[in-house]
Specification:
508 residues, mainly beta
Amino acid sequence: MPLTKKIITFTVFIVLSSSFFSGCLFDDLFGGTEFSLISVSITDDDGFPSLSLYFSCTGTVNVKILNPGSKIIDSDSYFKGDHDIILHLADFRHSVTPGSYRLRAYDNNDKEIYSKTITLSGSDLSILSSEQKWWKKDNGKYSLFGLSFNVQNNGDTPSYPYETVVDIDFETISGLVLPSVIMPGKSRDINCFIYKESETDDDTFSVNLKDIDENILASESLSVDIVDNVPVEHFEWNFRGKRQINIPKSDYLYDYYIGLDRYSVEDYSAYVFNPYDDQYIDILIDLFMSGFSGTKDPDIINYAVSFVQTLEYKSDSKTNGSYEYPNYPLETIFTGDGGGDCEDKAIYTAHILKNMGYTVALLRFPDHMAVGVNLSEEAISAYEFFIDGYYFLETTTGGKLCGFVPTEYRELTSEVIIHPLSDRPLLDHSWQDGTITIFTSTDIWKIVKVVLIVENIGSITAKNFVVEAGFFTESGLKSNTKRDTIVNLAPGMKEKVVLSVNIPKSIT
């Protein structure tokens, strides 16, 4: 599959023409600015618990929301007119702290012109019902393979369950809840992949739902209900003889991954760093390696990749050769009869090898993707390093061993981009609501307002990075830039950045 898409991340390059100019908004220059709040409600803004405000103002205003500790947690400026806005009450997927919040509006001279107290009690969850997933293994024993809950929120703020903790057979096990939000006064199903290898002797077990800060959101005692309700797919292939394996399918995980939007970044490590299938991949490795007795690293790697190589090659699009849609590993295994194109198979293989403890990377060529495996120089006597200490591992074509480089890629080392799968941050961003706003007639000249949602899709915290917006000349010189520094952004977290950039007066 051609891999030709080029993405520039975190460079806000703004090109203007007269057709983009809109919103002729004038401040009230002759009297005091008035602010009128028309409606306010609690909402969820794609993972951020928020206030939805609809208001009218007669001049430029700055609207702020202060938490119970009197700290400003969100703010933004608006010009004369009617506005329908969102202000965040807490960080991404975090619980709202109960207490009194203060909504304040200030005029262009920083004079307070409006204030309102909003008292919130927080979320209040109760588990209404549950469903247990039990996998009947080849030995006839059952393993707990997932939990689903129908949960009611009796509180007044959105709730974001993060983890399920189960006490069973004097053992504590846990699993991540697949991302979901339960709105006030509503109930919904939430799903968690959680695994207990051995069959239980207990008749009941206890469950705690926790938020991202480990606060308990709900607790329940459940009766054990063992039912054979996990589908199993059978695969056969050859590696020094006939091999076969029965792979259990987690419907929860598969449905989650096929429903995800694809990232805009060119670094496909994000599809390995996603944490929700880590436990599943470890189970798959244990199941897979139980049928192999080799002990040397090259043999283990060649055995692991042999299964992937025999999966069917499937193009992302039969009608558009440049179309690119990377799959997560569960999609590559279970979509149809399994299979995918070069990046799909490389992502799957890299995830397996990384979880097995190998140092690996994704090797991106202009029209191909392979895996790089870091071993010692003496590990594979028949081959040598392809690039930067990595042996080449072809995942698309059957029978290709670790270290073998197909002829068409042997002279392309200068064109390879290496994406190591060592723990690191990886940043992506999107425009909130998919747009930027241009104001051309205000009391503070002409501005472009940029609202970004920045996400860390890597595996460790991103620290002290800068988001910059501005205008750039054809020769690359910056003009009227604004910057914001994010001190810490944990894996899987998002942060909103608002930058207002003055339009250069010389621009046409």
